[in-house]
User: Fold this.
Amino acid sequence: MVLEFLYGIFRNFSIIDFLDIVIVAYVIYRIMLVFKQTRAVALIKGIMALAIITVLSEVVKLTTLSWILNNVWTVGLLALVILFQPELRRALEQFGRTGLILPQSFRTRPDTGISEAIEEVAKAAVILSKNKIGALIVWERETGMRDYMETGIPIDSLVSSSLLINIFIPKTPLHDGAVMIRKGRVVAAACYLPLTSNTNLSTELGTRHRAALGITENSDALAIVVSEETGGISLAIDGKLKRYIDTKTLAELLHRHLIPEHQERRFDKLWRNATDEK
Assistant:
């Protein structure tokens, strides 16, 4: 039966059908590249989960749930357009320019070790704090940050304390905005971030702190802030701000949230070596 079914399909299969499948597959692939490493990935996963629940509810004959979900899908197309409006606009722009090819600027090369990158960020934070130079560094985790990275200047460099310090020197071209780190590489600088919608924050918190909270409210990223008024170091996680932390605590928190457990010994060794050199 299976062979007969397959024979029936391929008997009338022509070169036009083959080209049709290849073109559709290529378009889907390019669209996936556009959505890759953006916040839309989490939304797509949610939509897929909702679709599975819808199918299961109809199979199990959960009448009320099926009715609710079917009505949700009735307006689903409009909701998708609204939710994915920035990504859809970007896809159309890239299609017009390059045929939906992912911009070269944000194709990062293989990253350096996360432990080494954390060490460099901690070193930069020490010097920036001592000199009261304001800084905002965002570290991407699972949620893609490419839509925010594209608001800044592409860099694609290994993370180094010297680079981070020079970026945030006042009155330099890239000092105003956030540095974005993906794994072990600096991907972009002078990036614009959304400000927090929390109206109950202390008036002491400036734009950098509010941007750090905003990005962590909209994603699972980590945001390191150095205040130019006090030199205090803060870390924003999940929309919450840990203020006035020392460099060792900063490194430990980054380690805890960014490095798998099997790399812990390596990190501790690197940190001890770094502190011994001072």
Q: What stands out?
A: The chain has two domains: 2-102, 114-276. DSSP finds twelve helices and seven strands in the chain.
